[in-house]
């Protein structure tokens, strides 16, 4: 009898690609998930903007139809064009000249002033982050110092910024520093606290098992800090940086109101409020651009976080 040969079953196409081919599917899945999450976040943001716009115009339409009174009660905000301009009026003003005889559009002018504010906020964020990280390391290794200083740091954040800002401006002026230095100091004053708290929490996050292992192999305190605690603290630090970025923009805007720099979106908001009756839409446009600048600033930090933690997220 002749032996019947059984044909070998074909191997899957990926069999010859070696072990490096295995992560291909998970990587593709992660990318699809990331793209889907980004799309959902974008659609959610657009939905929120549309909802706010609908509420604004709906409130204005109802108020105008009822004479700003419902069941004998006055509405909390008048709906006339001086108090609540139409959204399309605000958007149209961005394309109009910022000043008479100046070809620069209001949008271009606001963006230029916002760049000044963001530069001051960036300086303040860097200075506040360095101070916050240094305090976190100090509090980690010196418990008595942490117990003594932490209540004062918390108390410093409860003082109204409008009370602190003039003092910082005066101190900077007495020292002969330019006004933008005072603005940067105000931004750093608001930025350092969230970085300190989050970084300290992250530095304390490694499990005791890992700490004991590092000590068992003879690692010094510095090596434990650099090789174990700092990598574990990175997600916490970036969370604090996002909060600090928002606070630094607010601090820079408030600082510009007190420092008299003559530049920045804070000064534009103050001038627009002073001449509000001549063009209320300009004030709303300035506030809108300032809000968008804060969002962009935070999103840039989110991108930096994604880049810095990309290998950790891929595990």
Give structural attributes.
two-stranded antiparallel sheet, globular, disordered N terminus
Task: Explain the layout of strands and helices.
Blueprint: H1 24-66, E1 69-70, E2 73-74, H2 87-93, H3 106-141, H4 143-156, H5 161-174, H6 179-203, H7 208-216, H8 221-259, H9 265-274, H10 280-308, H11 310-313
Antiparallel strand pairs: 1-2
Helix pairs in contact: 2-10, 3-4, 3-6, 3-8, 3-10, 5-6, 5-8, 6-8, 8-9, 8-10, 9-10
Biggest beta sheet summary: 2 strands, antiparallel
How much helix is in the residues? Answer: over 70%
Give me the strand/helix succession: HEEHHHHHHHHHH
- Number of discrete helical segments: 11
Structure write-up:
- This protein has helices at residues 24-66, 87-93, 106-141, 143-156, 161-174, 179-203, 208-216, 221-259, 265-274, 280-308, 310-313, and strands at residues 69-70, 73-74.
- The chain is 73% helix and 1% strand.
- The protein is globular and about 75 Å long.
- It has 315 residues and is an all-alpha fold.
- The chain is built from 11 helices and 2 strands, in the order αββαααααααααα.
- The model is unreliable at 1-25 (pLDDT under 50).
- The longest helix is centred in the N-terminal third of the chain and has 43 residues, at 24-66.
